[in-house]
């Protein structure tokens, strides 16, 4: 079993709990105030039966109905009950506030961690599982701070207060009641041991539900086109059934070891107390007030036990959820780090790959001894069949993945020496499938960069031929963009992505088949814009259509992670190697047939 699905030991649960409580450190003072309110409420709970005992033994039994002391007792009892109501309200609000602030901070930490993780982590982790940790798991942790912690502390106060009162009433019987504590401890320990495994299983299955739901929503178009609805329903149903079965196992354990088991112990305790007073009454008179108070305290003693047992299920869920959150927070697969030489600046944009080799899994190289130079103002095109390593070169250049063999130089310095901020400012990336955020077109071009003015946005849109279609929209640049820009065509999304890149005015331009999703008419406009964009910029372009990179200064032909050919378009055609074959395939076999006829 992997580190996320193994059953947690008691020691691991304690470590998770202590780490969880560290989040409460900034709120020590308000928590102590909340605990103080709990203590006051507990005192009120303990004093109430004593006042009733005094009323029975001093007034009802001897028929002493002197009004003044009775009124004082009644007013005192009523005041305590009313005061307890307000105290419990304020302590509940206090705990809720603290819990919400803690969960707010935890969610910020988790979200920030996700933003800092490397692409390698997302390659192996379903998005739904990550969403589950940020939402469902942190919500379960909130329940612990809201109710579990308060109940545990209140119960501790109640235990102490009740036992003090019981020892005051009858030392021998109170000492005898202490014998029930080991039995209750055994029940609690047994429940934690069994339920931990089931809650772990249930949380993992809930994560699987979120992952499957996320996958189906993102691929809804493909699911409907290929009539996969029944299969998706079946797979979701299987995961849902597993979650149901895990939940039923939890319910069965809760039903056996929570209130029923504690109630059984409570009944035994009541039988012993009543038996003790019954035997005692044969020898000496028994005060009814003492009997009432003792039975009342016994009930009040077991009620907190029941409350604690009921909260144990939330506690176990919180511990399991916290362990999953902490596994994410402790994830070491972070984005590549930089040496951060703050004085290192990208001036010219010269790029040099030196003997670079790279593997995603540490076993099989996807890039082997890659070496080439892209000079300022020049365009280097990467071509090759699927899986040849083109995107891997871009991923390393953009610092999405870490490399250890060879180096990538920029203006003569390793790209590791530049700050990430410097790299991102000077490098512009346009992907084959552009991503648009929810908001307006203006927001998607600016990306909340205050340095980019409205005039710059419009100029960038005009530069890439996006202005005409944006201007025709009902709200122009204020037009709302739905999730992933689904209301725009592929070509329009690509044009907005081009405008976004040009608004940054990068020194280095990286194009990942940027014209693949654009129609022929739009592509002609884009090619004109690209020619202007490349002027004065170092451009690295991945191309599947060879017609789009015929004017490149250098074309690298990749095959199985190696550069097998390099040169200009005409030079590579003259070699009649792999590039030549790819060119003929894309332009049909007529040229080959004509060559054969002419030579015959």
From TrEMBL:
Residues 32-317 form the ABC transmembrane type-1 domain. Its main location: membrane. SMART domains: AAA. The keyword Nucleotidyltransferase does not apply. One of its GO terms (molecular function) is ATP binding. It is found in: Cell membrane. It holds the Pfam family ABC_membrane. It is a multi-pass membrane protein. Residues 351-585 form the ABC transporter domain. Keywords: ATP-binding, Membrane, Nucleotide-binding, Transmembrane, Transmembrane helix, Transport. It comes from the Bacteria. The chain crosses the membrane at residues 32-56, 68-90, 145-167, 173-191, 256-279. GO terms for cellular component: plasma membrane. InterPro entries: AAA+_ATPase, ABC1_TM_dom, ABC1_TM_sf, ABC_transporter-like_ATP-bd, ABC_transporter-like_CS, P-loop_NTPase, Type_1_exporter. The keyword ATP-binding applies. Coiled coil: none annotated. PANTHER family: ATP-BINDING CASSETTE SUB-FAMILY B MEMBER 10, MITOCHONDRIAL, ATP-DEPENDENT PERMEASE MDL1, MITOCHONDRIAL. This is ABC transporter ATP-binding protein/permease.
């Amino acid at each position: 079993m992997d580190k996320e699905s193994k059953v947690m030991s008691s020691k691991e649960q304690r470590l998770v709990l202590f780490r969880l409580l560290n989040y409460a450190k900034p709120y020590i003072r308000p928590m102590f105030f909340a605990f103080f309110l709990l203590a006051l409420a507990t005192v009120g709970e303990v004093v109430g039966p004593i006042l009733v005992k005094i009323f029975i033994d001093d007034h009802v039994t001897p028929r002493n109905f002197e009004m003044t002391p009775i009124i004082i007792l009644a007013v005192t009892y009523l005041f305590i009950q009313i005061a307890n109501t307000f105290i419990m309200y304020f302590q509940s609000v206090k705990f809720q506030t603290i819990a919400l602030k803690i969960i707010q901070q935890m969610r910020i930490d988790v979200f920030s961690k996700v933003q800092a993780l490397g692409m390698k982590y997302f390659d192996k982790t379903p998005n739904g599982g990550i969403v589950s940790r940020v939402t469902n798991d942190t919500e379960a942790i909130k329940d612990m701070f809201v109710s579990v912690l308060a109940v545990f502390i209140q119960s501790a106060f109640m235990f102490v207060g009740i036992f003090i009162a019981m020892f005051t009433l009858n030392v021998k019987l109170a000492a005898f009641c202490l014998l029930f504590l080991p039995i209750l401890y055994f029940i609690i320990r047994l429940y934690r041991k069994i339920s931990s495994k089931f809650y772990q299983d249930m949380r993992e299955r809930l994560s699987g539900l979120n992952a499957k739901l996320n996958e189906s929503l993102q691929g809804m178009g493909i699911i409907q086109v290929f009539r996969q609805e029944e299969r998706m329903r079946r797979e979701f149903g299987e995961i849902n059934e597993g979650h149901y079965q895990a939940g039923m196992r939890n319910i069965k354990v809760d039903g056996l070891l929570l209130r029923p088991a504690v109630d059984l112990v409570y009944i035994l305790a009541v039988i012993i107390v009543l038996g003790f007073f019954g035997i005692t009454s044969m020898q000496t008179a028994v005060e009814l007030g003492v009997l009432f108070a003792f039975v009342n305290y016994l009930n009040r003693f077991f009620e907190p036990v029941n409350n604690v047992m009921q909260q144990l299920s939330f506690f176990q869920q919180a511990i399991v959820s916290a362990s999953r959150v902490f596994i994410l927070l402790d994830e070491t697969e972070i984005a590549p780090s930089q040496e951060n030489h703050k004085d290192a600046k990208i001036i010219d944009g010269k790029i040099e790959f030196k003997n670079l080799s790279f593997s995603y899994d540490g076993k099989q190289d996807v890039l082997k001894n890659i070496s080439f130079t892209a000079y300022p103002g020049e365009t280097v095109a990467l071509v090759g069949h699927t899986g040849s390593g083109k995107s891997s070169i871009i991923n390393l250049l953009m610092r999405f993945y870490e490399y250890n063999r060879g180096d990538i130089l920029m203006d003569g310095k390793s790209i590791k020496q530049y700050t990430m901020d410097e790299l991102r400012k000077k490098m512009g990336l346009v992907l084959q499938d552009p991503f648009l955020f929810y908001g307006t077109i203006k927001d998607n071009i600016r990306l909340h960069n205050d340095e980019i003015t409205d005039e710059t946005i419009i100029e960038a849109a005009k530069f890439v031929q996006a202005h005409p279609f944006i201007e025709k929209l009902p709200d122009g640049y204020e037009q709302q963009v739905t999730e992933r820009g689904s209301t725009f065509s592929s070509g329009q999304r690509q044009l907005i992505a081009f405008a976004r890149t040009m608004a940054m005015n990068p020194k280095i331009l990286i194009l990942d088949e940027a014209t693949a999703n654009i129609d022929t008419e739009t592509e002609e406009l884009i090619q004109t814009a690209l020619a202007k964009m490349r002027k004065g910029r170092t451009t690295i372009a991945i191309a599947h259509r060879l017609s789009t990179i015929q004017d490149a200064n250098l074309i690298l032909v990749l095959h199985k992670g190696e550069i097998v050919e390099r040169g200009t378009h005409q030079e590579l055609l003259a070699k009649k190697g792999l590039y030549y074959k790819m060119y003929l395939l894309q332009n049909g076999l007529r040229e080959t047939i004509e060559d054969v006829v002419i030579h015959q």
